[in-house]
Amino acid sequence: MTSNRDESLGFHPLSMALAWLWPGLGHIARGERQRGILIMSGVLFLFLGGLLIGGIDAVDRREDALWFVAQAGCGPIAFVADMGNTALLKNGPPESMVSTPVGAASTNKGGKVSKRKALAHVNEFGTLYIALAGLMNAVIVLDAGFRRSRTTGSSAA
Question: What is the domain range of residue 26?
Fold first, then answer.
């Protein structure tokens, strides 16, 4: 009886979970293939565009925690990008690391950062693009979970 009530209200928790796991997948699972592909294209374009502009350092859970909250809306791809940042830039070989100035706000062990760290506005633009992709996907997750199907809406008229 609960499932019929949930169906009539348009609540689909599985679609919400799928939409967070991969952008657009929730809509594809609900039978809205074209909408899901368009959503996937838009969110991934913003996410990959942000990585191309700002580099892998644009996703940083430790140094940019508040930005990462928004970026995490993209799902596991944001966490994978953060792991890549940690593995490639934060824990790189000693010869590719430089010391940070005294008093600099650094959370790295030993006050070292990578020589390949993105700088200034380029990194900020990449961070912003990825955060926008995450916020956009958060809205899409809600849309996938609470959207009434077209057949339900047309039968009520």
Answer: 2-78+116-155
